[in-house]
Amino acid sequence: MPDLSWLAPAVDDLMAIVDYISDDNPDAALAVMTEIQDKVGQLSAHPKRGRMGRVEGTRELVVRPNYIVVYAEDATSVMVLRVLHAAQMWP
């Protein structure tokens, strides 16, 4: 089973999302964070779970319609690159 790691920009993205949501609803912020972490945690067992990414060599896991985890995987590791709001995915 591949190792799972979060790169610093992905951690920063997740914390920014949680901070933003918690301004209005701390319970919802915790629920979003937990859901993202849980679904990302499954990637080491199922690294092909996400769709092909928009950037070559990446995959995208849609956690909710508005939250997308961008990651890269190979035989030995899954690296979480970014956690983005869907609005950040389009020009």
From TrEMBL:
It comes from the Bacteria. The keyword Glycoprotein does not apply. InterPro entries: RelE/ParE_toxin, RelE/ParE_toxin_dom_sf, TA_system_RelE-like_toxin. Keywords: Toxin-antitoxin system. Gene3D superfamilies: RelE-like (3.30.2310.20). Belongs to the RelE toxin family. NCBIfam families: RelE_StbE. This is StaB. It comes from Roseovarius nubinhibens (strain ATCC BAA-591 / DSM 15170 / ISM).
